[in-house]
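Journal club prep, notes for RB
We'll compare a predicted complex against what the paper describes. Inputs for the zinc ion case:
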Amino acid sequence: MARIRAKDTKPELALRQAVHAEGARFRVHVSTLPGRPDLANRRAKVAVFVDGCFWHGCPKHFVVPRTRAEFWREKVRRNQARRRAVRELYVGWRVVEVYECTIARDSARAGEAIAKLLVRAAD
Ligand SMILES: [Zn+2]
C-alpha cells in the first residue's frame, strides 16, 4: 500500500529554502534513492527525510484519532518500521529525519544544520 505523502509541503519548502540560503546544493524527491528522500546529495552522501508529525508518530504531536484508533496506530508503526528498513540501505551515508514541527519552530536553524552536513561532505 502506497504511503500517502504530500510533495512540497510548506515545511519542506521552508527547509529547502533555508538549506539553499546556506549555499548547500541538493536534489529533491530523489526517486533513485531508497525511500525517495526529500533532499539528497550523492556526493556528500546525505539523505534528508521531512516527516509529517502525524504519519511518522512525532512524540510531541502524534495524537491517535478517536475513530479507527488501532488502524492509525498500526499505520504509524508501519511507517516507522519502513523507515528503519530504508535507513539500513544507506550504508556509509548520513540519513537525517526532520519532523515538520522542528522546521516550523525554526527553519533557518534546521536548514543550517543540514547545510553543514552537505557542504562539509561535498568538499
Ligand atoms: Zn511534531
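Talking point for the session: The beta strands are 27-28, 39-41, 46-51, 94-99.
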